[in-house]
Design brief:
Helix Hairpins, 3 domains, five-stranded mixed sheet, four-stranded antiparallel sheet, 12 helices, transmembrane, Sensor protein, ATP-binding, ATP binding, membrane
């Protein structure tokens, strides 16, 4: 297929026209052919009926020889493209020279066809038996009509159909090409708008107003794609800035401490203290890099490789035991409500639960109660971690699971939280074909995720 849409449309128009002209031409040709065949048979029968009436008047051999034969000869039927034979068992009552083919047509009666040597078409025959009368025995009239002039008319009509049909197809193709080019002008304008888009002006969109209805959806979809690309680009810019900021702090600490140590000679204890501090910063860098690599694998379609059926409440209890020192330090308590069995990879599930509980502990005050609610609804298990806290504004809720997103700088914890915990929860949920959710209502902030329930 050609790469030009206008030529493809013109070719389709031409193909449709060819089919229509072909079918119409065949129908017309068939009608004309049948009409001419009826006319030829009618002429043959008409002349045969005249011969029949003349033969019926003959009752003797003398009448046949002296009156009928000369009259039939004087009629000069062949001048009108007609051949005449009269077949009889008595040679005295014959006319013409009947061949075996003529005798076979006589026995068959009615209409038939006869091939004549050197003639381009078949003769149309008509046979009728005339009962005997007086001394005249029973005879059979065989009359053949030459349809050559009708056949020539059909041939001319056939050539005219082919010629006019071909010309019509070419005309339709040419007109279709022009119509297609005119009809595709809005698409050309749309292409021009798309080529005029500037990467430095990410807010640009294609104009919807002058577009036909058929292109409105395409334009709107393209604009939607541009909007998503702009949002992704902005998110990538923000992500790069956040990554640079997160990496800059521990690197600055490492460089600063190392520079201070190198200003003068230090004893072993001071060097060990600096190395321990540097190790903490290096561990933080390692955690950031590992988390980013983990998120990158999820973005590439990684899924839970070894899911198994587990008790969610039991896994929550293990995570709470692991975080017991932190819970005791912050003076909060954790309660678990409900239980359900879900299909999950244990290590990933514990990591997601640890991130949610760590987030809740970080934003809870001493004496607060953190609640973990586990429930099953249909094919999914829901895990919701709630803690008392300041209400989160609605515009932030949709972005809390984005990477490095924080509601405000007051929540920034340079000690260990680097803004990827909730993003990892979202990634783990996606690896288990689940989803995440967040609510802030009635003094409670709730973060959670869903998992597939076992069948």
């Amino acid at each position: 297929m050609t790469r030009y849409l206008s030529i493809r449309l013109a070719a389709m128009f031409a193909g449709c026209a060819a089919v229509v002209f072909l079918l119409a031409g065949l129908a017309l040709y068939q009608v004309l052919e049948e009409g001419m065949a009826r006319q030829v048979r009618g002429e043959a029968k008409l002349r045969g009926s005249w011969v029949e009436s003349e033969v019926a008047r003959v009752q003797s051999e003398s009448q046949w020889r002296l009156w009928l034969a000369p009259k039939l000869g004087a009629a000069d039927l062949e001048r009108n493209g007609t051949r005449l034979w009269i077949v009889s068992g008595n040679a005295a009552f014959r006319y013409g020279t009947p061949t075996p083919e003529i005798e076979a047509l006589a026995r068959a009666g009615g209409f038939g066809t006869l091939a004549e040597a050197g003639h381009p078409c078949l003769l149309v025959t008509w046979a009728k038996t005339v009962p005997g009368d007086g001394d005249r025995p029973e005879v059979t009239i065989v009359l053949a009509k030459d349809p050559l002039r009708f056949w020539e008319t059909l041939a001319a009509f056939r050539l005219a159909l082919i010629g006019f049909g071909a010309a019509g197809v070419l005309a339709v193709a040419a007109l279709g090409l022009g119509i297609a080019r005119v009809g595709l002008r809005p698409l050309k304008r749309l292409s021009g708008q798309a080529q005029a888009l500037d990467p430095n002006h990410k807010h640009q969109r294609l104009a919807l107003a002058p577009m036909p209805a058929e292109l409105t959806d395409l334009t709107a979809s393209f604009n939607g794609a541009l909007q998503r690309l702009e949002a992704a680009y902005q998110q990538l810019e923000a992500f790069n800035a956040d990554v640079a900021h997160e990496l800059r702090t521990p690197l600055a600490n490492l460089i600063g401490q190392t520079q201070v140590v190198l200003t003068r000679r230090r004893d072993a204890a001071e060097l060990a203290e600096v190395l321990h501090s540097n190790l903490e910063e290096l561990e933080r860098l390692k955690a950031i890099v590992n988390d980013m690599l983990f998120l990158a694998r999820v973005d590439q379609g990684a899924a839970a490789s070894h899911p198994s059926e587990v008790s969610i409440a039991a896994e929550v209890a293990r995570v709470v035991d692991f975080l017991d020192a932190l819970i005791e330090e912050r003076g909060v308590r954790v309660t678990v409500h409900g239980d359900a069995r879900g299909c999950a990879e244990t290590a990933l599930l514990q990591r997601a639960l640890g991130n949610l509980l760590g987030n809740a502990i970080e934003h809870s005050a001493a004496g607060d109660e953190i609640t973990v609610a586990i429930s099953r609804a249909g094919e999914h298990v829901t895990v919701a971690v709630s803690n008392p806290g300041r209400a989160i504004e609605r515009q932030h809720l949709a972005h809390l699971f984005d990477r490095f997103y924080r509601v405000d700088t007051a929540r920034r914890n340079s000690g260990g939280n680097h803004g990827l915990g909730l993003a990892i929860v979202k990634a783990i949920a996606a690896m288990h074909r689940g989803s995440v959710f967040v609510r802030s209502e009635q003094g409670l902030n709730t973060f959670g995720f869903t998992l597939r329930a076992p069948a």
